[in-house]
Amino acid sequence: MRQVSRRKVIKMIGTAGLSVMAAPFAGISRTMTISHSTMLQREIPVTGEKLPVVGLGTWQQFDVGPEAAAREPLINVLKSMLEMGGRLIDSSPMYGKAETVVGDLSASSGNADKYFYATKVWTSGEQSGIRQMNDSLQKMQRRTMDLMQVHNLQDWQTHLKTMRQWKEAGKIRYTGITHYTSSAHDQLEQIVKSRAVDFVQFNYSIRERNAERSLLNAAKDSGVAVIINEPFDSGSLFRMVKGQSLPAWAADYDINSWAQFFLKYILAHPAVNCVIPGTSNPKHLADNMGAGYGKLPDENGLKKMRAFVAQL
User: Fold this and answer.
1) How far apart are CA 83 and CA 24, in angstroms?
2) Which fold has domain 52-310?
3) Beta-carbon neighbour count of residue 208 at 10 Å?
4) For residue 231, which of 255, 206, 257, 258 has the smallest C-alpha distance?
5) CA gap 265, 220 in Å, rounded
6) Tens digit of pLDDT for each residue in 39-89?
7) pTM score, two decimals?
8) What is the DSSP letter of 35?
9) What radius of gyration do the chain's Cα atoms show?
10) Per-residue pLDDT averaged across 121-135, rounded?
11) What are the Cα distances from residue 191, in Å, to 111, 122, 130, 199, 271?
């Protein structure tokens, strides 16, 4: 296999105006060896199933109508993600039409069963939760949902009871809880320590590091898989580094872009199973997926990354 620079591939794609499906190895840097040409995967503790470390969030990006012009980039995003080694797609009833769009596009791709589907329940009350979860199965065109999560802990005890029953019945494979603010980390940690769920999803970035205080280690110690949202701090990290060049030492960790810089900081923590940056742009998708390839920062690298960001 010929080694391909991700930066070069992205440039080629942009110039040609083609979908990123033409670049299944877009995440491989010119310094990597063939042995590193597959995306890093980490085991889900409760089963040992391996999950690629970079997935896809659908908040806002997949809330589109049926028009071909709106959906075509998303078709390319989903196809490219799979070809570059990603699997996990995260959605929610809160995300407008996103569940329906994911279901339609994955079903028409011919590769529907190759993805790992995660969505959420976002309501109060047992019966309302059951109706919403059934609706999500229908919208995403799944008989079994890979991961069902309680969105932002809303009525979480009620929904977890239902989700455990659904798991026993084979309607879902894994259970989880989510939140997007650091103020919820203490409550998430309490639930994680009780081993009540298989997954926990929360916010974490190089600038918003509250999860490093104890939540990440609690999840690892409790055997709960971790999904990270808000890896770019709602885009503020890119605004912070606008006009800045990557430090030369970033190449030591196969980092070729700021997106990879931010994502690899997160993935360097061994508790993290998957990070889910959202995008509707195939070129950005290729950039994000590249974070799952090559070297991850060691402790010395993490210190340098934190120091670099702190002085901006």
Assistant:
1) 5
2) TIM Barrel (3.20.20)
3) 17
4) 206
5) 17
6) 999 999 999 999 999 999 999 999 999 999 999 999 999 999 999 999 999
7) 0.90
8) G
9) 19
10) 98
11) 35, 18, 22, 11, 16
One-letter amino acid of 75: I
**Which of 231, 224, 161 minimizes the C-alpha distance to 188?**
224
The upper half-sphere exposure of residue 233, i.e. CA atoms within 13 Å in the direction of its Cβ, equals 15
For residue 213, the one-letter residue type is R
> Which residue, chain included where needed, has tokens 């069902």?
148
User: Quick one: residue 190, left, alpha or beta (phi over 0 = left, psi -120 to 50 = alpha)?
Assistant: alpha
In the chain, the DSSP E strands lie at 41-43, 50-52, 56-57, 88-90, 116-121, 145-150, 172-178, 199-203, 225-229, 272-275
Q: What is the pLDDT of residues 82-102, one digit of tens each?
A: 999 999 999 999 999 999 999
Report pLDDT for 88.
99
The two tokens of residue 264 are: 């690899």
Interior/surface letters 163-181, b for 16+ CB within 10 angstroms, e for the rest: beebbeeebbbbbbbbbee
Instruction: Provide the residue ranges of all domains of the chain, joining segments of one domain with +.
Output: 52-310
Residue 310, token pair as written in the block: 């702190």
pLDDT tens-digit series, residues 162-181: 999 999 999 999 999 999 99
Question: What does the DSSP assignment read for 172-189?
Answer: EEEEEEE-SSGGGHHHHH
Q: What CA–CA distance (Å, rounded) separates 228 from 178?
A: 9
CB 104 within 8 A of CB 137: no
